[in-house]
Design a protein that fits this description.
Layout: H1 2-9, E1 17-21, H2 26-35, H3 40-66, H4 71-76, H5 79-102, H6 111-171, H7 175-225, H8 228-259, H9 262-269, H10 275-283, H11 285-291, H12 296-310, H13 317-331, H14 334-357, H15 361-395, H16 398-413, E2 415-419
Length: about 425
């Protein structure tokens, strides 16, 4: 029994027709729906009433403009006050004429035009009220009737605008602007989403190409490094490295030899005739030795020994012993051996360098490594940019806007719209 009564008094849920509409086609779909709304009679009536009142207002403004001050008032009112009131009357008339000139009533019975017109009219009336409030009150003192008649005509226009606005509200048509605004945001959101998705697809494709490119270059590097030519190149470079180590070791021996007699040579420089030879060895002994093809330094060292013995070069006993030992070592061919070894090593270095020039595989490996590094850098960049794009896509509010749009559409058109 209670279940039956509940069903009896329960409000039947309204069922709406469902229509699928593409976002980009929504405006034309809405225009078509609006065109079918039975509201043409109200629009025509509104426009005709405004036209009638506009004519009346024009007449009342003309009457106000030509109105003269009552003779009794002229004599009674102070001249200064009269001028002030006349100024307000002129300002009131000027603003009303400007309002009348801008009151362009559309033709036909288009709903959008009528709504836009009524909105603009309401804004103009608000602005007119602000501009004429003071002048209206002041001009009434000496021109009450014509001012009041103009004010009354404007008031009727204001009532018509409010009445039409009420009819739009009652019919649910006030939702049009709200719907259009949401659709505009939705369309903009969709365009932005499409751009982001296109950019995302391109970057994902590039990421794939970079991964494939890196894999290809890595395989090429492995292939080149496993090549017999590359193994020969590695062996040559190892040999070159070993020889360079021997070159440096040979230089170190020469440097050590002359570092022991540097002080003695500086003193000998002052008394010897072989000044240039001594100076060269003092500046860079290793370099000087390698350039000294005739080994003039051996004669210089013998002269240094004699200078020490005859007292021309004063040294302590330890230095004297070192000089004696090194002179014997030099005369026995030690320095000649260092020079010869340097020449032999340099010859080997040159031969290896010549051989290395004949190998192009290292350039190929270097090129492949450069490409691989480039693909790696681009991969890192694409991953970062793809993540950023995904965040931007998630931040878009298209789905929420689409849901918010359903209710005003349903309320106005009695249709449930499904955007695709």
């Amino acid at each position: 029994m209670f279940g039956f009564l509940k069903k009896l008094f329960q409000k039947e849920e309204e069922v709406f027709e469902v229509e699928e509409v593409r976002v980009e086609d929504f405006n034309s779909w809405l225009d078509n729906k609006i065109y079918k709304i039975d509201f043409k009679e109200e629009i025509s009536g509104f426009f005709n009433q405004i036209k009638d009142i506009k004519w009346v207002l024009g007449e009342k403004i003309t009457s106000l403009e030509t109105a003269e001050m009552d003779e009794k008032e002229k004599e009674r009112v102070d001249e200064k006050i009269k001028n002030v009131v006349l100024g307000h009357k002129e300002n009131y008339t000027r603003e009303m004429k400007r309002f009348l000139e801008c009151l362009n009533i559309p033709e036909g019975d288009d709903l959008r035009k009528s709504m836009n017109f009524n909105e603009a009219l309401s804004n103009s009336l608000d602005e007119l009220s602000k501009k004429t409030a003071k002048s209206y009150q002041a001009a009434q003192h000496l021109f009450f009737k014509p001012v009041e008649e103009v004010f009354k005509a404007v008031g009727e226009i204001n009532l018509l605008a409010k009445d039409f606005d009420g009819k739009l509200e009652k019919k649910g048509l006030k939702k049009i602007n709200e719907i259009q605004e949401k659709v505009r945001f939705l369309q903009e959101d969709k365009r932005r989403r499409e751009r982001l998705e296109e950019d995302l697809r391109w970057k994902e494709q590039k990421l794939t190409r970079c991964a494939e490119g890196k894999e290809k270059e890595e395989a090429e590097i492995d292939r080149l490094r496993n090549n017999d030519e590359y193994q020969e190149l590695v062996e040559l470079r190892e040999e070159e490295e070993q020889i360079n180590a021997e070159v440096e070791e040979n230089k170190d021996e020469a440097f050590l030899f002359f570092s022991k007699i540097g002080r003695a040579l500086r003193k000998y420089e002052k008394v010897t005739l072989a000044v240039e030879v001594v100076r060269d060895y003092l500046e860079d002994a290793v370099k000087a030795l390698l350039k000294d093809k005739e080994l003039k330094i051996v004669g210089v060292l013998e002269g240094l020994k004699k200078g020490v013995e005859n007292g021309e070069v004063e040294l302590d006993d330890k230095q004297k012993e070192i000089i004696a030992e090194l002179v014997i070592k030099a005369k026995s061919g030690y320095l000649q051996g260092l020079v010869k070894k340097a020449e032999e090593l340099q010859k080997k270095v040159n031969e290896i360098k010549t051989k290395l020039k004949g190998y192009g595989i290292d350039k190929l490996i270097e090129e492949a490594e450069y490409k691989s590094e480039h693909f790696e850098e681009q991969t890192v960049l694409m991953i970062r940019e793809i993540e950023e794009l995904k965040v931007k896509l998630q931040a878009l509010g298209g789905e929420k806007l689409a849901e918010e749009l359903k209710e005003p559409v349903k309320e106005m058109l009695k249709v449930e719209v499904r955007l695709v």
